[in-house]
Amino acid sequence: MRRSLFAWGIVVTALLCIAAATVWVLNASTYSAHATVERYLTALAEGRTGDAARIAGVDPDSVAPLPSDPDLRITGPFVASGIARDGVVAVEARATFAGQAVELSAVLVPAPALGGIFTQWAFAETPTGTVSIDARPVDAVLVNGAITSTTAPLLVLAPGVVSVDSASSWFDVATQSTVVSAGSSLTVSVPLRPSAVFRDTVTDAIITYLDDCATQTVMFPVQCPFGAATDNSIHDGPRWTIVDYPALRFSRTAGDIADGAWSVRGIGVVELEATLVDNATGTLFPAGTRQQFSIVARVTGLNTTSPRVTVLNTESD
Q1: What CATH number is given to the structural domain containing 100?
Q2: Which residues in the chain belong to E strands, given as ranges?
Q3: pLDDT attached to residue 27
Q4: 219 with 301, same domain?
Q5: Cα separation, 52 vs 75, whole angstroms
Q6: 79: domain range?
Q7: 63 three-state secondary structure
Q8: Cys staple from 52: which of 43, 81, 224, 292, with CB 3.0 to 4.6 Å?
Q9: Backbone angles phi, psi at 26, to 5 degrees
Q10: DSSP labels for 244-259?
C-alpha cells in the first residue's frame, strides 16, 4: 500500500512539473511580449482591423480601417529584438511597405494574467499615429476605402498606411498613400480636381444662365455680362444669340479655399440683331454686331448635393 501511494506521489509530482514547465514554455513563447507584438503586426499585415486594434488597446471603431488592398498593407513583420528590465519589455520590430522598411519600437507592460497563470502583455503607449486630412471644401473622403469625416484628426494603427481618395462625385483625386508611424502626427492635403460631373454641372448652369440672358429683348439684358448702346431708336428687336458659349476654366484662390469655393472664368461670343430708326431721317436700317463677353462665377455648396453657381460680373464690360 505504501509503495502504491509513493508511486502515485511520483506520478502527481511529475505531472505538476510537466504542467509548470508547459506554463513556463507558453509564457516564454505564445504569451510572451514578443508574441504579442508579432500577433499585432500579423493582424496589420492581414488587414484584421478589429484584432489589431484590440491588441493595441484601442476601440476598433475609433481607428481608420486597414486597407483592403494587400499592396497597401505591411508585409514580412518580424520582431528583431527585445530587452526585459524592471518588469517591462522593450521590443524592436520591423516590416516592409512598398519595398521600404518600416519600424515599430514599443514598450510592453504586464497585464492581468489569463486564467491567473498565463502572462499577458499590453502596449505601454498605443502604437498609433494621427492624421489630419485637409480636403476643403468637402468634409468627407475615402480613407482606405471607407467614407471618413475630415472634421477631426484620424487615429491610425501604426506602422500603417492611409490611402485617401475622393468620396464626392464633384471631385477627382490622384490617390495618395501616406505611411504613418507610431507617435507621429501628420497632415495630408488632398489635391482635389473638378470631376467631369462637376464641370458638366457648372457648364450646364452657365449655359442656362446665358440662354435666359439672350431671351431678353433689351439692349442691356438685366444681370447679364453683355449689352450694347445705340443713339438711335429701336424699331424691332433686339435679338441676342449666343454664338460661342464660354470654355470654362476652374481655379481656386486662397480665399476660395478658405470659403470652400471654386472660381470659374471663360470668354464667349454673343451676336446682336435689331432694326433701328435713324433719328434724323426716320429711315429704318438693320444693325448687328458680335462681341466677346466674359464670365466670372463662383461655385459654393460643394459639400452638398446641389452646388450653387453665382455669376459675379452681371454687367457688360
Answers
A1: 3.10.450
A2: 75-85, 88-97, 100-114, 118-123, 128-134, 140-143, 146-149, 154-157, 160-166, 171-173, 176-180, 185-189, 192-194, 233-244, 249-251, 262-277, 284-300, 308-311
A3: 40
A4: yes
A5: 15
A6: 24-57+72-126
A7: strand
A8: 43
A9: -65, -40
A10: E----EEE--HHHHHH
| 290, 243 contact by CB (below 8 A) | yes
Residue positions counted in the chain:
317
Percent of all residues in the chain with a pLDDT value above 90, rounded to a whole number: 48
**pLDDT of the residue at 10:** 52
pLDDT of residue 2: 54
Cell numbers for 226: 453683355
Q: Is there a contact between 217 and 243 (Cβ–Cβ < 8 Å)?
A: no
Q: Per-residue pLDDT tens for 26-68?
A: 344 445 888 899 999 999 999 999 999 999 999 999 999 999 8
Q: Would the pTM of this model clear 0.85, i.e. be above it?
A: no
Do residues 114 and 139 touch, judged by C-beta distance below 8 A?
no
- Residue 208 has which C-alpha cell? 442656362
Q: What is the pLDDT of residues 172-205, one digit of tens each?
A: 988 788 899 999 999 998 888 999 999 999 999 9
Query: Do the beta carbons of residue 142 and residue 135 sit within 8 Å?
Result: no
Return the SS3 of 122. strand
The count of structural domains within the chain is 3
182 SS3 class = coil
Decide: 29 and 82 in contact? Cβ < 8 Å.
no
Distance between CA atoms of residues 48 and 179, nearest Å = 18
Q: Provide the pLDDT confidence category of residue 270 given band limits of 50, 70 and 90.
A: very high
Quick check: is 187 in a domain? yes
Average pLDDT, the chain: 85
> What pLDDT was estimated at residue 117?
54
DSSP state of 135: -
When pLDDT is averaged across residues 134-143 and rounded to a whole number, the result is 88
How many Å apart are CA 76 and CA 92, to the nearest integer? 14
Residues 48 and 59: their CA atoms lie apart, in Å, by 13
